[in-house]
Design goal:
Elements lengths: L1 H16 L7 H12 L2 E5 L6 E5 L13 H18 L7 H13 L3 H19 L10 H25 L1 H10 L6 H14 L2 H19 L6 H13 L3 H27 L2 H21 L6 H12 L4 H14 L3 H11 L5 H22 L7 H18 L5 H15 L5 H14 L8 H16 L4 H17 L6 H15 L1 H29 L31 H17 L13 E8 L2 E8 H9 L5 E3 H8 L3 H12 L6 E4 L10 E4 L9 E3 L9 H30 L1 E3 H11 L6 H13 L3 E3 L6 E4 L2
Parallel strand pairs: 4-8
Antiparallel strand pairs: 1-2, 3-4, 5-7, 6-7, 9-11, 10-11
Length: 769
């Protein structure tokens, strides 16, 4: 057993070595053994087998000396006072810690806690006196309260480290008691910060510092951070500071918003608002409690933005949009998105702007020439703003579409007509503005504008007329581009919309095949003649309606026409050919003093110029008699030959217009740098009469469509009330129509006995089978 007793002796000496404060080492060893219930094991002396070491409790608990608790408290009290007075502590901290542990082990914890609380309370109460001085200015007062707080925290940390055993045993087991740290906070709160004078002066001082900082002054932010952290730790931040801070903030920004809205331009005002929001967010990060962020930012947003939304938009949105101020518009969108109803109101004003701006482009006839290009440019600008400034907001995109549709249809039919003409200008030969890829992009953009139009039949009529001219006069820039446009229209409006347009292309392709056969046919004739004739066979239903013009053709042309007629009707019996002289064109060879030239001219121009093979001078009436050209058409034709850039004829008297008594003389001195000259072909220029007749044809077609729709609905429903019939018609018709127009068509069908009114109810209709 020698080894075992040595182990015990060694074990006890270790415990004694770590202890100070009791006079009897044996007793201490016994207390330690009793408390820990420790057991150890180790090798027996002399290298024997391993044995388990068991330490048993003493049979009797050692007693403390009578004055031990009192003496120990004296030491602890001295140490606490030294900490509070920032003087050196006489005792070793480990010794003090062990003393607390010993006192607590002998159930003196309640007394020890009470004594500690009392000494802390006495010290905190004594601190209030230094804050009674009225001579202290605000900043010095704040620094003093901050120092007091910092000292208090430092002291309580040290005190708690000494009384840690008390804190972790007795206090932890008593839920009603605050921890030593919380007790310190409670004392500071009750005796210092809850003092009305101290609290008022503290809060006033903090608010003054923040006000100065908001006015641009540099303040001690670390002081603010420390003081506000103190209020948070003491749990008085919300009630004592935050409420007043938010009230002051509200007052400040209410006044600032009203003042600056009148004094500053909108972009400058928005920059200011943005800066204020950044400043306040920075304050939260730097020294305010995080919980203050939401009400603080909401207050700034409400007073600087929410109260002035309509005023900002009225004062500045139009200017920002007109000047394309992308950065400012982006900022406006971001700021308005932060406020309730802000985004909604912004988009509402934005929609009105589009309608108003678009309306000025569409309704002014003086801008017709550039209307489509202006619409395309405006659409590009609007799209860019949506993408960059408004973050591709879906509501914004939908509003834009609605707005475009609203303003573009404020002037019925004209935009549709002008879009068709714009497409014509892009697809016509000689348009060297764009490559194939650029042309494709332009056509895509035009299609977007086209989608907004209600009267697409007007577009179709003008597009068909222009396409006919491009195809018949060989003016199309690119067959691929033509087919691409046709494909876009088909995708947008359906196959029925483009069937006639596709038929026109088929006619042109079939005509090429027919002409190959005709050339072979002519070569087999005994006298083929020296004129090279090309004919396009047009199916009447596909092409625009052309008014036939009878003119007096030279015998050679008449002979060739007859040869073609015999050839064609021989292959296709039962068909009828109608020659459209207004669409004809020719190449003429001419000789002048300068030399030979070739002219690309219309058939009417050809007939006039061929007259001058018979003489050098003719008057207007003679030309009219010889050619048989209608008077107005002849005046336009002579104007192109005698008043344009290439003057093959001279007119007497000189002037821009051709009158009845004018004389036309062959210009033998004609000069031109080109060998082949294209003289402006009048039929390529649309006349006002043509324009009106195209529009009238559209209206006529609409009447037929309305009639057909009414009959179709009545045939299916047999009996229908007026309002229901009109509602059905609105759903079926693909063009805008007024109730008055529908009423007229219904009356017309009643007169023609397709339907009849009910005898008892005039608003009820019956289908007549």
């Amino acid at each position: 057993m020698a080894g075992e007793s040595q182990k015990k002796q060694h074990h006890f000496s270790t415990l004694v070595g770590h202890t100070n404060g009791l006079t009897k080492p044996a007793s201490l060893a016994a207390v330690a053994g009793a408390r820990s219930g420790a057991a150890g094991s180790g090798a027996a002396g002399g290298g024997g087998a391993s044995k388990k070491l068991v330490i048993k409790n003493f049979r009797e608990r050692p007693t403390l000396p009578d004055n031990y608790t009192q003496e120990t408290w004296q030491k602890l009290h001295e140490a606490v006072r030294a900490i509070q007075n920032s003087t050196s502590i006489k005792y070793n901290l480990e010794e003090l810690y062990q003393a607390v542990e010993n006192v607590c082990s002998y159930k003196a914890s309640p007394t020890l806690y009470r004594q500690l609380r009392q000494v802390c309370e006495d010290h905190v109460k004594a601190q209030i006196l230094q804050f009674r001085e009225d001579s202290l200015d605000s900043l010095l007062f704040l620094k003093k309260i901050n120092k007091c707080w910092q000292d208090h925290c430092r002291q309580m940390i040290m005190i708690r480290s000494i009384f840690l055993f008390l804190d972790r045993t007795y206090v932890l087991q008593n839920s009603m008691l605050p921890s030593i740290w919380d007790m310190g906070l409670e004392l500071f709160r009750n005796h210092i910060i809850s003092d009305k004078q101290v609290q008022t002066k503290t809060i006033d001082g903090i608010l003054l510092l923040i006000e100065r900082e908001r006015n641009g002054e540099t303040v001690d932010r670390s002081l603010l951070r420390s003081l506000l952290s103190m209020l948070s730790d003491l749990q008085v931040y919300k009630d004592s500071f935050e409420q007043r801070f938010l009230e002051d903030t509200n007052c400040l920004y209410t006044a600032e918003g009203q003042k600056l809205m009148q004094a500053r331009e909108v972009p400058e005002y928005l920059h200011h608002v943005n800066r204020r929001l950044e400043e306040e967010a920075d304050r939260v990060v730097t020294y305010l409690d995080h919980a203050t962020q939401k009400p603080l930012i909401a207050c700034v947003e409400r007073q600087l933005l929410g109260e002035h939304l309509a005023a900002i938009l009225q004062k500045g949105l139009d200017n920002l949009l007109n000047e394309n101020r992308i950065a400012d518009l982006t900022q406006m969108y971001q700021l308005f998105s932060r406020v309730k109803n802000g985004q909604q109101l912004l988009l509402q004003y934005w929609s009105e702007y589009i309608k108003n701006f678009g309306t000025t482009i569409v309704v002014n006839p003086e801008r017709d020439k550039d209307m489509v290009q202006e619409l395309l440019d405006f659409k590009d600008k609007v799209d860019h703003i949506i993408e960059v400034c408004f973050q591709k907001n879906e509501k914004c995109i939908n509003l834009m579409k609605e707005s475009f549709e609203t303003f573009i249809n404020k002037r019925p039919n004209k935009p549709a007509e002008l879009i068709a003409k714009h497409v014509d200008s892009k697809l016509r030969a000689g348009n060297k503005e764009a490559t194939d890829e650029e042309l494709e992009r332009i056509l895509d953009k035009i299609m977007i504008i086209f989608r907004f139009i209600h009267g697409k039949d007007v577009f179709e009529a003008f597009y068909k007329k222009d396409l006919a001219k491009r195809l018949l006069v060989g003016k199309s820039a690119s067959v691929d581009a033509e087919k691409s446009m046709l494909s876009k229209l088909k995708h947008e409006c359906g196959a029925a919309f483009t069937s006639k347009l596709e038929g026109m292309f088929k006619d042109m392709e079939l005509s090429k095949d027919i002409m190959v056969q005709f050339k072979q046919y002519v070569q087999n004739q005994s006298d083929p003649g020296n004129i090279d004739l090309t004919v396009n066979i047009l199916t009447m239903g596909y092409w625009p309606t052309y008014t036939p013009m009878d003119v007096l053709l030279p015998p050679e042309m008449v002979k060739l026409q007859e040869i073609f007629k015999t050839f064609y009707l021989g292959k296709h019996s039962g068909r009828k050919l109608q020659w459209q002289t207004s669409l004809g064109h020719a190449v003429l060879k001419a000789e002048f003093k300068e030399g030979k030239k070739e002219f690309q001219v219309s058939l009417f121009q050809t007939l006039v110029l061929l007259m001058f093979n018979e003489g050098d001078e003719f008057n207007f009436e003679e030309i009219k008699m010889a050619t048989g050209i209608e008077e107005n058409e002849l005046k336009r034709t002579l104007q192109s030959l005698a008043c344009g850039k290439a003057r093959v004829l001279n007119k007497i008297p000189r002037g821009k217009d051709v009158e009845d008594g004018d004389k036309l003389i062959f210009n033998a001195d004609f000069k031109h740098k080109l060998f082949r000259i294209k003289i402006n072909q009048i039929q390529m220029k649309e006349t006002v009469e043509e324009q009106v007749s195209t529009t009238e044809r559209v209206f006529q077609d609409r009447q037929y469509q309305i009639d057909a729709a009414i009959v179709r609905i009545m045939k299916m429903r047999k009996t229908l009330g007026h309002n229901l019939l009109v509602s059905e018609l609105y759903n079926q018709l693909k063009f805008p129509v007024k109730p008055g127009d529908l009423k007229k068509r219904i009356e017309s069908l009643i007169d023609r006995e397709y339907m009849e009114r009910d005898k008892d109810n005039p608003n009820q209709y019956h289908y007549v089978a």
